Amino acid sequence: MSETLAAPFVTDWLLRACDAMRDARVDLIELDRAIGDGDHGENMDRGFSAVREQLRDADAEAKSMSELLKSAAMTLMSTVGGAAGPLYGTALLNASRAADGDELDAAGTAELVAAALAGIQKRGKADRGEKTMVDAWGQAADAAREAADAGASAAEVWQAAAEGAAAGAQATVQMKATKGRASYLGERSIGHLDPGAESSRLILAAAAAAAEAAGSTAAGDATVGAAKDA
């Protein structure tokens, strides 16, 4: 498995996230309808559809990891309605600053996830335990750092982040919302999965899948190369 990731990984990650938002559109709408205004799925699908179109541009393949993430960030900020656009846009903008080299290693991956979390927290003025996307990103950042410190590869760090996000999102079910529109429901918000935490889980799962695919491709290329040299 490849120890580092490069720009094609980011492109694949974003495209997988586009697919995930399209496929989960109705589910996210239903989740948001229960404790919000019901537009999260529509907004996320619209925003990531715009990201997909952007990635079809002729110059997309020439962009660095940082440039790809920054472009996606600006697109989400301008096309996703409600609070999600600024929050996800800031997350990816922070991530673009963390991914400022040609390759992303395990430590860099952990830093990228932590930077995205910091952006969301600063923009949304939210903390863990308030039943928001911060609960998913917070556990993702913790798991990513732990995996990186343990010597995992970049792909393995992404997998740890995705698993952390899944656990963090699921934990919101039993939380009472104290931030955002859902907080108006008080105790009635308990028992519902936070839609922002769920969309965050999907985005980080897309990253893990893209990283795994990049690692598999690199391993296959190495095997072919070794066979040719034999």
TrEMBL record:
Q: Which SMART domains does the entry link to?
A: Dak2
Keywords, A to Z, come to: Kinase, Transferase
Q: Please name the GO terms of the biological process aspect recorded for this protein, alphabetically.
A: glycerol catabolic process
**GO-annotated cellular components:** cytosol
Q: What SUPFAM superfamilies would the database entry show?
A: DhaL-like
Any GO MF annotation of the entry: glycerone kinase activity
- The DhaL domain sits at 8-209
The record's listing under InterPro entries reads: DhaK_L_YcgS (IPR012737), DhaL_dom (IPR004007), DhaL_dom_sf (IPR036117), Dihydroxyacetone_Kinase (IPR050861)
- What protein name applies here? Dihydroxyacetone kinase, C-terminal domain
> Organism, per UniProt?
Bowdeniella nasicola
Q: What is the lineage of its organism?
A: Bacteria, Bacillati, Actinomycetota, Actinomycetes, Actinomycetales
